[in-house]
Amino acid sequence: MTSSPFDFRGYRVVVAGGSKGIGRSMALAFASSGAAVSVCARGQAALAETVEAIAAHGVPAHGQSCDLGDASAIDTYITHAAQSLGGIDVLINNATGYGPGDSDEAWLADFNVDLMAAVRASRAALPYLSASQHASILHTSSIAGLHPRPSTPAYGAMKAALCHYTSSQALLLAAQRIRVNAIAPGSIEFEGGMWDRCKREDPARYATVLAKIPFGRYGAPEEVAHAALFLASPWASWITGQTLCVDGGQQLNG
Prior knowledge:
GO terms for molecular function: oxidoreductase activity. By secondary structure, the protein is α/β, with parallel strands linked by helices. It has a single domain (12-190, 219-246), classed as NAD(P)-binding Rossmann-like Domain (Rossmann fold, 3-Layer(aba) Sandwich), CATH 3.40.50.720. The chain contains eight helices and seven strands; from the N terminus they run βαβαβαβαβαβαααβ. The protein has a seven-stranded parallel sheet, with helices on both faces. Helix 1 (21-32) packs parallel to helix 2 (44-55) and helix 6 (194-201) crosses helix 7 (203-211). The chain is globular and about 50 Å long.
């Protein structure tokens, strides 16, 4: 990652779903910009490695195992994160259940993790955000929530709901000077991620998706993290209720 143009010294950032891919890149981007960072995830090994990488930037680091589909676990995590960091200035809801298909299991996974985890974490963090001078909430949505896709109806519907929730929540929290925005990434490739596996296991699908990206390549997690830095920074102080696509123009092709 290149040197950050943003200064987040004194900020306390919580990344719910932050041990790999986009979430990990966000956590490290804020840490490299001076913020104290807490992350949660289910996988212990990746979580421990991410916390170590955060701390390597010389900032306070906190990590905790958490199933973001469990309401009580979210409350516990947010409380512990706030205690460890001394408060919360930025909450990033980044988790996904990514249930493919149209089964009940897919719908419930996406509802509980992609949508309700963001609702519940926001609710739990609100007392701490209300005390912050530069409070911000960021949700990770997806361009899948902007256009119909037959392969992921549940995932797309929940990401669309998250975009709508972003604007409603922004209106609700404006009086408390808490900004709320979302990022809608396109197809992001990283080692061990979905598109990395697809490249090996289903190269035809990989090539089909690639052909729809005007910039001619898959995105990198760091490119989404850079957008998160901007949206959480004072440079975006008059931006709230928005969903920013970070996709190399992919959603322009539907």
